[in-house]
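Quick illustration, no need to memorize.
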Amino acid sequence: MTAVVGILCPDGVIIGTDSALTLTSGQTRTIEQTAEKLVIIGDSVVVAGTGQVGLGQRFTDVVQKAWEAKVFSNPTPALHKARTLCKNALDDFTSTHVQKGNYGALVAFVAENKAQLCEFEVTDFQPELKTNQLWYCSMGSTQHITDSFLALMRDILWKNGPPPLTDGLFAATWTLDHAVTVNPGGVNAPVRIARLSSGRDGQFKAEILDDSELQEHRENIAGAKQYLLKYCESLHATGAGTPEVPRPNPSSP
């Protein structure tokens, strides 16, 4: 059970997850424990997945080998790199007769002089690069929660295109915190978020943020909730939020 969120920004990429690892016996969940679901490969690739843990280990190994083979540093387009990861992963999976639909992943990497976000969909593991038209996605057992919340964020904050990295981090934090709070089970804190961005030297670097770096965003989330509460209270105070009850017209037949 997993919550995974990815946001493509003009100045980088955000990928976040929950930290619950659920053990199962057949179809029965047995125990839940905390685990790190984000992986940094080299210094500028982020991997997060949903599905079978063993397949996640194998895909991480595929990405690690691609890094060592300098797939990410060659001048080929982003889509070529994504196809390479897809082919190598499916070759690995099919070598042991893995059926489709058991694993999906988000990968952030650098290509064409900018940060890229690629979704490898659970159903068939085919790659999809995020763009200025569709710059966010989520995966895992809480996708029905996280997709809807990200759509709300887009409607409120992102009407004119992808958000800057700081706003993307704010939205990812709120989305994952919300999923942890309301999910029916199997997704839990702590929320973990990785950022791929360029530094002052122009070089891209991936890093997993510690909780203290998310605290400012959580304070802003609390402020936004308080502002919304006060707005609703003001509607009730002025009567603006109370609709007028229709009255029958005495002259009507």
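Residues 3-211 form a domain with the Glutamine Phosphoribosylpyrophosphate, subunit 1, domain 1 fold (CATH 3.60.20.10).
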